[in-house]
Amino acid sequence: MGELLFVTGGSRSGKSAFAERLAADARSVIYVATLEPRDTEMLARIERHAARRPASWHTLEAPHALATAVLTAPRGDCLLIDSLSGWVSNRLLALQDEAPSTEAIASLETVLLADVAAIVARANDRDAPTIVVSDEVGSGLVPAYPLGRAYRDLLGAANQAVSRAATHAWLIVAGRALPLPPP
User: Fold this and answer.
1) Would residue 58 show up in a list of annotated catalytic residues for this protein?
2) Which among 113, 102, 114 has a CA at the least distance from the CA of 160?
3) CA-CA distance, 34 to 180, in Å (whole number)?
4) For 176, phi and psi rounded to 5 degrees?
5) Which domain holds residue 66?
6) How many helices (H) and strands (E) does the chain have?
7) Mean pLDDT for the stretch of residues 162-171
8) What is the count of structural domains for the chain?
9) Which helix (H) or strand (E) holds 170?
10) What pTM does this model have?
11) DSSP labels for 12-33?
12) Please, what is the average pLDDT of the chain?
């Protein structure tokens, strides 16, 4: 039975570096990347992340089909998913609507949570850990725009589902990992 490890925190809190340390001792690691390079700054960020990973790690790009990537990955490889927040953003932006309707958001949430359930089930059935990284978006201000509120709500629901199922979870604050108690 595999472990599901959840790492969350604010932007630039050190989540990815902490998750990479968790994966460092694994025999084989697949880094499941979800971020899409939408501009030059984002591309530079992706390149910085890639440069600090060991050359022996394999990278699997899964900006939209995260559940498929997890379901088809070899059972014995540690999976480091970075990040759930990027995946939710990609799926929301694919709606191509700056003010998605309540129905569109509810439909997307149903699909996302079904994918999260599949990821969790597969993580429990693997022979190696699955590490999920995600931004914590519930501690900030209520976004001023509908798309921002939809993102916060969708990611919050996905984070809760992963956190409830996680063997271990941490909140990263200023580079420090605070273990979260079991649900």
Assistant:
1) no
2) 113
3) 25
4) -105, 135
5) 4-180
6) 6, 7
7) 98
8) 1
9) strand 168-173
10) 0.94
11) TSSHHHHHHHHHTTSSSEEEEE
12) 94
Given pLDDT bands bounded at 50, 70 and 90, which one contains residue 39?
A: confident
Residue 164 token pair: 């409830």
Peptide bond into 107 cis (omega under 30): no
Structural contact between residues 15 and 133, judged by C-beta atoms closer than 8 angstroms = yes
Q: What is the pLDDT of residue 150?
A: 95
Residue 1 pLDDT grade (very low, low, confident, very high; cuts 50, 70, 90): low
- Counted residue by residue, the chain has a size of 183
pLDDT, one tens digit per residue, over 58-115 is: 999 999 999 999 999 999 999 999 999 999 999 999 999 888 999 999 999 999 999 9
Question: Would you list the DSSP string of 109-159?
Answer: HHHHHHHHHHHHHHHHTSSS-EEEEEE--TTSPPPSSHHHHHHHHHHHHHH
Two tokens at 51? 């440069």
Which secondary-structure segment (H or E) carries 6?
strand 4-9
Give the CA angle between residues 16, 11, 148 to the nearest 5°.
Answer: 125
**Is the distance from CB of 125 to CB of 2 less than 8 angstroms?**
yes
Average pLDDT over residues 128-152: 93
- Of these residues, 49, 58, 64, 168, which one is catalytic? 49
**Structure token pair of residue 11:** 């932007």
Instruction: Provide the CATH number for the domain around residue 11.
Output: 3.40.50.300
Report helix, strand or coil for 49.
Answer: helix
